[in-house]
Every structure is written in C-alpha cells, then in structure tokens.
Write a sequence for this structure.
C-alpha cells in the first residue's frame, strides 16, 4: 500500500511538474470561486445600501 | 418564424428573468461541476495508464487541455454575446460578455501556466515564441483589453459598445490558435482529439479527459452565472426588481 502511494506521488520522476500543474490549477480555480462569490455578495450589499438609503446614491 | 417562436429569446433580454433563472441553475452547475472535477482528477492521476513516451508526465494533460479548450470556448461565447449586444442592443448580452471575460482570462492564464510547466521537462524550456503559444498569449491580451476597454468609459453603454467591437473583431484569433499547429512549424503537438478521423489517444486516457473537460465547462457555467448576477445587480441597482429582491414582505430592506 505504502509502495503504491510512494509510486503515485513520485509520478515516474515527473512529480514536481505534475503536482505543480494540478496545484496551480486548483489554486487559480479556488481563487476564481472566492472572488466571484465575494463580488456577488458585494453587489447584493450595494443594492441593499442603495434601497435602504431611499435611492439617494 | 412567427413572433411566438422568438418569445423565448426576448425573455433573455429581461434582467430579472435571467437573474432568477441563474439563481435556480447555479447549485446544479456547482454540484455537477465539482463532482466531475473530483472524479476526473482521481481517475486521471491514479487510474489512467501512463503514456509510453512521456510516462506519468502526460497527466498534466488533464488540467492543461481543458483549460485551453475552455479559453477558446469562452472567447467564442464572449464574441457571440458581444455581437448580440451590438445588433439587438440587448443589455443582458453585454453583461454576459463582461461577466465571461475575467473567467476566460483566468482559463487562458491557466492554459499558459500549465503549458509552461509541461514545456520545461518535455521541451527543455518554459517558453518559446511558437505560433500556438504566441497566439494563446494574444488571446490573454484580448481578454484583458476587453475588460479594460469596458471599464474605461464613464458611460456604461459606450464601454459596452467599444468592448463588444473588440470582442467581435478579436474572434479572428480563435481559428488562428486552433490551426496554428497545422499552418506553421510548431513545437506544440498537433490536434489529438479535435480533428477529423479518430482521436489518436487511448480511450482509457480519453474518458477522464472528457470528464474533466465537462467538469471545467460546468465549473465555468457556475461562475459565469454568479458573475452575471453580480453584473446585473450593479447595472440595475436602481431598478424596481432589485429592490424587490432585497426587501422583505413589509417593504423593509433585508
């Protein structure tokens, strides 16, 4: 089991490249999710603020 | 076609209709997209057979290729939305285009970054001014140009029109990217899957790639709809429908 896992992590000598490619992708996609959700929340807050001020902004 | 058959199209011109539709679809795209991404990652990393030449290094295909496909797909979508916005003056279409642009730019960046990571061990270089790589870099600049141009005007309509024009003209780069590997001598390998005839990739490697590509598309659809909702809220913050969205039954803001 440990041998299989070590082999899996080693990636035939390409570990650095394969894990970097997957890592960068996961990082960027995670960042995209966070930024998009945050932007949607901010837009909702903007609408709430606008209408709670009676449309003065 | 009669007026009735165009009604569905006209409904997409209504921001509250699109906002509500997006609200209902977002959870489905999110759940299905993440499920596909997770399945394909495990499948591609642990169960797909190694390549006879590149060994396990080929597994980078599972993040590089879907990102590259999506970068082109998103640009075509952006150009179509821009064209619809210009021709029919549909506000929602312009909102779709500007909502898609940063996502397309992120996928283009990912395709370049993962391609670079692949290039170093396989070609011995991080970057080369190869036709495929250069045209893909131009795509990234087109996305950035689209966003900057859209936000450069005080008047939103002027920004929409100017960026839509760039979006439509820039679509000429898409076939250049796709066929660059056939038209010029390129270090980049030619088409493996999207070509005439059978794909030159084993089915055991192809299926997880297709699942991953589907996952990327669903992931994009999820984020596009959320981006679109945010864009519509910003643009329509003074409209009655956005007030109805944030007010409770007593008319007080939630």
């Amino acid at each position: 089991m440990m041998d299989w896992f070590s082999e899996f992590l080693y990636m035939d000598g390409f570990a650095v490249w394969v894990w970097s490619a997957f890592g960068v992708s996961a990082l960027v996609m995670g960042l995209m999710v966070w930024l998009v959700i945050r932007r949607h929340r901010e837009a909702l807050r903007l609408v709430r603020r606008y209408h709670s001020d009676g449309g003065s902004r | 076609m009669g007026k009735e058959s165009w009604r569905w199209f006209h409904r997409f011109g209504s921001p509250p209709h699109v906002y509500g539709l997006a609200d209902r679809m977002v959870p489905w795209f999110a759940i299905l997209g993440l499920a596909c991404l997770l399945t394909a990652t495990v499948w591609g990393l642990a169960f797909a057979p190694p390549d006879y030449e590149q060994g396990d290094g080929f597994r980078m295909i599972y993040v590089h290729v879907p990102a590259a496909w999506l970068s082109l797909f998103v640009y075509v979508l952006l150009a179509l939305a821009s064209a619809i916005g210009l021709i029919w003056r549909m506000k929602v279409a312009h909102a779709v285009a500007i909502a898609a642009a940063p996502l397309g730019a992120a996928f283009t960046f990912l395709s370049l970054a993962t391609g670079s990571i692949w290039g170093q061990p396989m070609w011995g270089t991080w970057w080369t001014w190869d036709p495929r790589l250069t045209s893909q870099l131009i795509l990234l600049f087109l996305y950035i140009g689209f966003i900057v141009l859209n936000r450069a005007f005080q008047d939103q309509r002027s920004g929409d029109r100017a960026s839509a024009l760039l979006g439509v003209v820039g679509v000429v780069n898409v076939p250049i990217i796709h066929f660059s590997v056939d038209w010029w001598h390129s270090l980049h390998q030619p088409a493996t899957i999207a070509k005439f005839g059978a794909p030159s990739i084993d089915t055991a490697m192809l299926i997880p790639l297709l699942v991953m590509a589907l996952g990327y598309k669903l992931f994009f659809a999820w984020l596009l709809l959320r981006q679109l909702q945010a864009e519509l809220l910003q643009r329509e913050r003074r409209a009655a429908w956005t007030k109805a969205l944030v007010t409770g039954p007593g008319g007080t803001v939630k």
